[in-house]
Amino acid sequence: MKRNILVTGGAGFIGSHVVRLFVNKYLNYNIINLDKLTYAGNLANLRDIEDKPNYTFVKADITELYEMRRIVKEYKIDGIIHLAAESHVDRSIKDPFTFARTNVMGTLALLQAAKEYWESLPEKYEGKRFYHISTDEVYGALELTHPEGVPAPFTTKASSMDDMAYGTEFFLETTKYNPHSPYSASKASSDHFVRAYHDTYGMPTIVTNCSNNYGPFQFPEKLIPLFINNIRQGKPLPVYGKGENVRDWLFVEDHARAIDLIFHEGKIADTYNIGGFNEWKNIDLIRVIIKTVDRLLGNPDGHSEKLITFVTDRLGHDMRYAIDSRKLQSELGWEPSLQFEEGIEKTVHWYLENQKWMDNIISGEYERYYEEMYKNK
Ligand code: NAD
Ligand code: TYD
């Protein structure tokens, strides 16, 4: 079936993997990538598919309702996969207003534009879908009841190195929202608006909440690419607090595969949590990154450990995130394709092989931001 799919934020990290997957897999779909190209948007992430006949890029800002109205109508959009957002917690602490504007007002503008267009059609909402990509951070923070780790109760392919869990609780689709950072508060608010458009107007919506992603094309303000690059350049590795916070890591291509599956087979008005039962304490993850980068660069084992620098903790730093993704696994049959060892090896390898991609980013706006941020640490 021919379809016109709007992917917002397709020039960012996860969005670029979603766009690539859809453009290559669905030759009968037109994929329209709508992105404002903020500091985080980079068309170099999509060089390999930009000339494909089923791909179109549109530069636009999701907060501009008139533009959103024009675009959904002009491209006769029948499905939306909404990823565009401000996504970095540290930036949200410095500038919460930008997060409210983009993540809340931007999502609302897109919802409203889709509503008006779809309701104007004879078939109305039939065959339409508004799929909103959200985060596990909306659920708040879990306790670190087992700081040394206990055997993980559920394992999947994503997990293996230690198969540890650092607490007994996990985020379920039914877990009450309890966001703490301006970032997670803005995402929580946008999730509520999406559900409200279903409950009030009958829009066919879906929301998914995913754990931390890692992999190629991630902007180097986030932990994994930042640390890989700093090790390469012999720069300090700023570990917030004692490095005891726990995150649940998923390879980005596995997230993109989940998005594909849920976009096509997920139940309307439903929510799915996406994660690989792959919890890591920051400091342990950092040691794995150091080991891998040193090995691939031909440095002696432990060479870059000296770069670890404990710095002032992030304000309101959530202690532990851990997703229970058994609903997605049992209802739709998704499972991660990669074990963490393979994923991290692939990722480090990619950043070392694509230094030019990294250097181009770091020479620009980000460099100034980075200097400003660490001046205070
Ligand atoms: P990212 O910061 O790498 O990319 C965001 C993209 O959105 C960029 O291309 C940027 O230019 C674009 N954008 C920002 N403001 C815009 C605006 N006003 N109009 C149009 N485009 C705009 O983010 P990411 O890590 O790829 O995350 C994508 C989505 O997935 C976000 O909604 C995020 O909340 C969610 N998410 C991310 C993670 C993660 O670990 N990165 C985990 C779960 C959920
Ligand atoms: P990040 O990649 O910013 O993702 P999120 O905050 O959305 O989970 O950070 C991952 C973890 O790493 C988080 O606990 C904060 C920590 N961190 C550091 O210790 N140092 C850093 O320089 C960064 C960017 C993050």
Give a structural overview.
The protein is α/β, with parallel strands linked by helices. It has helices spanning 13-25, 65-74, 89-94, 96-120, 182-201, 223-233, 252-265, 282-297, 326-332, 340-353, 355-362, 365-375, and strands at residues 3-8, 29-35, 55-59, 79-82, 129-135, 150-151, 164-165, 205-210, 212-214, 237-240, 246-251, 271-274, 279-281, 308-311. The strands form 4 sheets. Strands 3-2-1-4-5-8-12 form a 7-stranded parallel β-sheet, sandwiched between helices. Strands 9-11-13 form a 3-stranded mixed β-sheet. It is globular and about 65 Å long. The termini are far apart. The model has no long low-confidence stretch (mean pLDDT 95). The site of nicotinamide-adenine-dinucleotide has 30 residues, from α1, α4, β5 and β9.
Order of helices and strands: EHEEHEHHEEEHEEHEEHEEHEHHHH
Number of helices: 12
State the share of residues found in helices, binned by percent.
Answer: 40-55%
**Spatial order of the strands forming the largest sheet:** 3-2-1-4-5-8-12
What is the approximate shape? globular
Q: How much is the radius of gyration in Å?
A: 20 Å
What is the mean pLDDT? 95
* SS elements, strand count: 14
Oligomer class: single chain
Q: Estimate the strand proportion.
A: 15-25%
Class by alpha and beta content: alpha/beta
Low-confidence stretches: none
Can you list the ligands bound to this structure? nicotinamide-adenine-dinucleotide, thymidine-5'-diphosphate
Instruction: Give the end-to-end Cα distance, rounded to a whole number of Å.
Output: 54 Å
* Largest sheet properties: 7 strands, parallel
